[in-house]
Amino acid sequence: ATLPGWKKTNLTYRIVNHTPDMRKEDVDKAIQKALKVWSTVTPLIFTRIHEGIADIMIAFGTKAHGHCPRYFDGPLGVLAHAFPPGSGFGGDAHFDEDEDWTTGSDGFNLFLVAAHEFGHALGLSHSNDQRALMFPNYAYISPSEFPLSPDDINGIQSIYGSPTKTPDKRPATPTSPKTCGSQISFDAVTTLRREVMFLKGRHLWRVYPDNSEVELELISAFWPSLPSGIQAAYENMKDQILFFKGSNFWVISGYKVLLGYPKNINTLGFPKSVKKIDAAVCNKNTGKTDFFVGDKYWRYDENSQSMEKGYPRRTLNDFPGISQKVDAVFQHKGLFYFFLGSRQLEFDPTAKRVIREIKSNSWFNC
Amino acid sequence: LPLHSEKDNKEEDTKLVEDYLNKFYAVETDPNQRGWKTNAESTAEKLQKMQRFFGLKVTGKPDTETLEMMKKPRCGVPDVGLYG
After folding, report:
1. Cβ pair A22, A28 in contact under 8 A
2. What is the pLDDT of residues A82-106, one digit of tens each?
3. Tell me, what DSSP letter sits at residue A190?
4. A92: nearest CA in chain B?
5. In A24, A84, A153, B5, which residue has its Cα 20 to 30 A from A174's Cα atom?
6. Does residue A243 contact residue A265 with C-beta atoms inside 8 Å?
């Protein structure tokens, strides 16, 4: 359930006092990160002020505190509360100082509780979805995980829309790439079940090959902990996506970045001389993943989780027609689609030949 | 140490239930009047609402599972109706 939201997207916040449980800068960081959870998926921008009345006043108190109509109940029980958008107490968030506030999994993680309370401050009620951040009971999740569930994102975007709809004042960022630009090229392309995702800079297009739908999103709207400028991506046999940038790679399952990532690509079996991956594709028919680096490629066996012997090999030898560096590649209905700048080559891995050349933006129904 | 008597426990549980329902399941807006109207539902009805919200067995009684859920640390905003 949602209430009317703020009528503006630029909101101010003020940290009125700090809990002695944590270093001041850790409190500031936790509050800033908690607000960023919501600004990542909406057009909202939060600016901190140090004096006067902010839209969102943040304070620690115990039992009856100030003029607040609600009171706290000592350790445990109620941890914090907040008020819906509006003047006066509207938008304010209060935290029970009798709790043990922390940055980790002990006590109560201030970032997680603050992110929940700011959901109320923006107009969200409680959700009965146990996976939702707006579920009333406290539950610790690792900070590396993005705390919003689809339920939370749907709720907040039903009030404020998604981040791409309204131009915002973030530091100079490139405007969204033109979907049908004739010279468009991609950093990486991967399937995700029945859809195909095309990545470029901070953005990704979600395409459903079976119908004309194309959605432009921010990568950070799904995976805020992923960097922009992903260089390679592929969907493996376990319903996971691997994203590569430089010598790091992340494994994603649904909305979650699996714990322990990023890892270094040499854990996959690449020599130290390999600094980055240009493109990758898992051949669903063989269970083997091909990694393309410059004019060579490695082959990785997903079943044995190990790099095959005898690699790297020259790409041209095994993929006739693929003669230059590959930007991205994915597999659809058995065929490979290699992206080389604004050119795309449809390749039959069985017949080992290029079937045809098309434009890179051919999937966008331009 | 003196042990809690059965009676003490029961009284504690009753107080927990009352506090919890008054705090999180008692405030509803009345569309016919501006502002708040205290919820005249019975404790059993409020308990059922709480059990339904948390996906518990809807018994209307403060069974063990329900009491355990009520003891979990949580947010102070009501679960039903318009909060604030």
Report:
1. no
2. 999 988 899 999 999 999 999 988 8
3. E
4. B84
5. A153
6. no
Interface test with A, best of B22, B27, B75, B79 (most A CBs within 10 A): B75
> Which residues have CB under 8 Å from A125's CB, separation 6+?
A1, A2, A3, A134, B77, B79, B82, B83
- A356 burial type by CB count under 10 A (0-12 exposed, 13-18 middle, 19+ buried): exposed
Chain B contact set for A138 (CB, 8 A): 72-75
Beta-strand pair A256-257/A248-253: antiparallel
Is residue A45 within 8 A of residue A11, CB to CB? The reply is yes
A78 lies within 8 A of chain B by CB: yes
- Alpha carbon of A87: minimum distance to chain B alpha carbons (Å): 12
In the structure encoding, which two tokens stand for residue B71, read together? 């003891």
Residue B5 vs residues A167, A302, B12, B68: alpha-carbon distances, Å: 64, 61, 11, 19
Residue (of A149, A129, A151, A152) closest to A141 by Cα position: A149
* A138 with B74: Cβ contact below 8 A: yes
Chain B CB contacts of A117 under 8 Å are 75
Q: Are A115 and A147 in contact (CB under 8 A)?
A: yes
Does residue B34 carry a pLDDT above 60?
Answer: no
Tokens of A280: 């990758």
Taking the C-alpha atoms of residue A179 and residue B24, their distance in angstroms, rounded to an integer, is 48
Distance CA(A336)–CA(A289), nearest Å, equals 12
Q: Please, what is the end-to-end C-alpha distance for chain A in angstroms?
A: 38
Q: Is the separation of the CB atoms in B57 and B71 below 8 Å?
A: no
Angle at B71 between CA B69 and CA B73, to 5 degrees: 100
The pair phi, psi for residue A312, each rounded to 5°, is: -80, 155
Reported ipTM = 0.82
How many angstroms separate the CA atoms of A147 and A115, rounded?
8
- Which two tokens mark A2? 């949602």
Token readout for A167 is 């131009």
Catalytic site residue A117? yes
For β-strands A256-257 and A263-264, DSSP reports them as: unpaired
Residue pointed to by tokens 């669903």: A284
